[in-house]
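Input record (one chain):
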Amino acid sequence: MSVNQPLIPMRGGLHIPQVGLGVFRTPTGAETRRVVREALACGYRHIDTARFYGNEADVADAIRASGLPRDAVFVTTKIWNDEQGYDETLRALDASLATMRFDRVDLVLLHWPVVGRRLDSWRALERLRAEGCVRAIGVSNFMPHHLRELLAVCHEPPSVNQVEASPFLQQRELRLLCEAHGIVVEAYSPLTKGLRLAHPALVRLASALGRTPAQVLLRWGLEKGLVVLPKSTRPARLAENLAALDFTLGEVHMATLDGLEEGLVTGWDPRTAP
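The corresponding structure, as predicted from the sequence alone:
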């Protein structure tokens, strides 16, 4: 199945597919390989994994088994907290590449703004990108104060900042800062881990549009220019999530969704991280 998926331009002339599959807490082994193969068959072309998830090898094996050219699938991985630091980050990416049996990866992120290590870790990512091991580098869970610290000293700004975002956690200040510096914002947990799928205003809007609440949440992110990273292991839900590309929201619809802000954090909360 072929899907005409929007591509978001990134620094350096690269482009990232706007809908990706997150594999956090997807079981390792055959289950991850099945999910990734089914997602690729459905039309996904962007897989988001991490060292911490323990399933880098399964993601890579599924891509190879799909028959798709390696360059047809955008792959992200991340440097975990206890592997940050300059030399540690270099070793961690070497290990990821060996695990995946890839010559390079499309995007590498610092998984968390680890105090005392994040700036040295970023210097290592700059080196890795210059050496061609990585096509793009970025961060995850960096709030405005973390980003401003990094932007003040880096040679190359991040291409991406991956954070939790949804209509219930809109990250407005952060999105404005990223936009000003050409940083693409990726939204993890865009479906609120299911916690707000039954919200009355969301359900009414989805019903009026003939769509599911999950599709409306994802469409909000797409309309905002975010890369969205829904997660599912069920074929029907994989297709449902990707179908958020098939419709648009009007100004009134977006205003309704914009009014749902409540600061909802469903996972890690980096806002108070030093």
